[in-house]
Amino acid sequence: MTGRYAAGATVQVRHGSMSGHYRxxxxxxxxxxxxxxxxxxxxxxxxxxxxxxxxxEQPLYMVRFRQHDxxxxxxxxxxxxxxxxxxxxxxxxxxxxDV
Length: 99
Prior knowledge:
The chain is built from 2 helices and 5 strands.
C-alpha cells in the first residue's frame, strides 16, 4: 500500500464544492485531524457516482478529529473524538493548507 500520509500525520481537510456528489462530511471540511491508518487504495466514489470507473484508485485513510475541534460548544471530555474515512485528495498537510 502506498499513500502520502503515515499514521500520526497531522492533516487538514480541504473545502469542497457544495454542488455535485462528494463523500466528505461538511462538518470536517477545513478541520485538522490526525491520520490513524491507511486502509488501502479504492476506486474514487465521487467519480463512480457519475458512471466513471473511479480509477485510478485513491488511498483511503482513517482520520481522527477531537470533538472540541469539530463542535465549538462541545461539553464532553477533552479526549472525546470521532474517526472518519477520507480519501487522500481531500487531505493536505496541516501546515500547507490555507482554509
